Give the backbone structure.
Amino acid sequence: MPNECLEGYCYMLKILVQKYGISENIYSDKHTIFKSPVDENLTRFGRMCEEFGINMIFEETAEAKGKVEKKNDTIQERLINDIKRYQIKTYTELNKFFNEKYSDYLNHKFSYPPKENEPAFEPIDSNFDFSNILCIKEKRKILDGCVFSYSNNYYQLFDENGVIIKIFKGTDITVMEDIFDHTIRAEYRKKVYSTRKIAGHRQDTVKRQQKIQNQKELDEYLNLQNRNS
């Protein structure tokens, strides 16, 4: 990916699970993609790992990550030089090269024999559905007309026959945005439905920004009151 981002780590996680199975643990630094800097709430990536059943372990020292990257010179030296040497020009070429060949080379060169022979990966079925886990999930309420609002647009749920799902106003649903193709689906009563964006219906941007500002001001005021009480 052009930069360190959630989508890139989701690709990495999907490749890992497809190749080896679901790992018991993932060891990482405290990047905000992995660990919230504000509280102990799960990040989006943390929620995905939890749904897979993967335990996240965070490094506690600044030197921990360097033991891998700097000692092996994989990021700053080795990989960069090999990209130039093999004249790799695009991210697509690099991903193919790295995942099909280079990662095996690195594992062969730097991995250690395990202390236990029992694999720490849980195999998955070949038809495993990643879409219900590798997605952004947010709560929404049904509005008038059986619609919900997401990313400044309005959507309706419909079944496999294209029939609109009738849901009472105020009902909670979970919106699911696919991390890769950004398809919007929604979960209602433990069942996942496709959605359809309502053509011509888009929230007024000025009013939406004013609403966000009002909520922000209220949060700041209440936080100040709590600190002073």
In short: The beta strands are 22-23, 25-28, 55-58, 121-122, 135-141, 147-150, 153-158, 172-178, 184-188, 191-202. Helices lie at 6-20, 44-52, 63-72, 74-85, 91-110, 205-228. Residues 205-228 form the longest helix (24 residues). The two ends are 47 Å apart (CA to CA).
